[in-house]
Amino acid sequence: MIYINDNFLEIRFPELQNNVGLRIHFKRTLRIPDDGNTHSLPPGLGSFPLRHIDDFNLGTKNHLKERGGIIMPMYQSEALWLDFTSIQKFGDVEYPIAVKIGTGKICAVSGDSWSSTLNRDPQDYVVVPEQPWLDGYNVEKGKIKQFVAAPMGHGYTVEEQLTGEANVGGLQIQAFPMKKDYYDSLNKPVQNTVDYCMHAPSMDMDSMEMGLAPGGEMRQEIYEDPYDFEVWDLRKSQRCFVTIANAEQWMDITGEEPPKSPISASAYTRAGLPWFEYYGNDQTAIEGAKRLGKIKSIKNVAPTTGENIWVDDQTAFKSKFSWLTKKKVNEGKW
User: Fold this and answer.
1) Which of 13-27, 74-88, 307-321 has the least mean pLDDT?
2) What element of type H or E holds 100?
3) H/E element holding 106?
4) For residue range 120-164, what is the model confidence (pLDDT) as tens digits?
5) Which of 305, 330, 245 is nearest to 4 (CA)?
6) Cα 7 from Cα 9, distance rounded (Å)
7) How many angstroms separate the CA atoms of 220 and 217, rounded?
8) pLDDT at 322 exceeding the cut of 50
9) How far apart are alpha carbons 35 and 218 in whole angstroms?
């Protein structure tokens, strides 16, 4: 079962055990500079609002409701990261969940076309709670390119760069729980301590469709699955399609004011505010996806129509950083 709860997505597997599942927050953040350098983690700037797509009239785009799921607004060239947390801790081991993330039905971890199962070689998923967040595309071991919103049909999105088509857009999420007998063998008697990772303190309907494109480069490891592949229950999965609406049309669709556009990275840095570093020294990072290693960031894409949408006010800077430690949604047809 999948629900929206206070602007986060909650994926549950109650048939395994009460409160088994995870929460995914879609976090607003600074778009990092696309200047050829590899940057630290930007701060979180609150969560994007999430709504059931079935609740709204999308006009000529009502067919998008067949995909089910949720809808959220993003400004053109705005950045996003995904924050993963377990719903509840039952003992010494949080219940592991394997999570696939796609954009335009291209896997953000492996670069392969979307499939409705897990694959180990190459690994096309992350494991929660071991992976606390995901900020972008796995382009190189220890490096990602930031998720950045872009309009469909101009050649910016990863979907268009790798397939030459602009048919899907949005975000795709699918979660697979660990089989209960394997979890029971891992777990120990309940303790009353909880340890959560934090990333940071915290209508023209024809143009509504948005996808995600690669932005600047950031240091971030995508961790290798620490378990045997057989532990994952491939018969029990939940999935959700996230439609991304242009923030300028958000009021027309929902009747709500869209969030204000975030400040620039350079302004944030000039104010002396921190960026962040995270190291999971006890975990192994997977290799970058060869296919994703070829994608171009928005700044370097020659659009099929019009001028490039990238507004580069992200001047070079030296960022100081802080250290970190570790209603049911319709699944639809897609």
Assistant:
1) 307-321
2) strand 97-103
3) strand 106-107
4) 999 999 999 999 999 999 999 999 999 999 999 999 999 999 999
5) 330
6) 7
7) 9
8) no
9) 11
- Tell me how many helices (H) and strands (E) the chain has: 4, 19
Question: 149, 144, 155: which is closest to 259 by C-alpha?
Answer: 149
> What HEC string does 256-309 produce?
CCCCCCCCCHHHHHHCCCCEEEECCCCCCECCCCCCHHHCCCHHHCCCCCCCCC
As a whole number of angstroms, the distance between CA 14 and CA 1 comes to 8
DSSP summary character for residue 104: T
Hey, what are 278's tokens?
């995270």
Closest CA to 291 of 136, 158, 126: 158
Closest CA to 125 of 139, 111, 104, 140: 111
Amino acid at 228: D
Give the sign of the dihedral formed by CA 35, CA 281, CA 87, CA 177: positive
b/e 175-210 (16+ beta carbons within 10 angstroms → b): bbbbbbebbeeeeeeeeeeeeebbbbeebebeebbb
Compute the average pLDDT of residues 53-61. Answer: 90
Q: Are 104 and 164 in contact (CB under 8 A)?
A: no
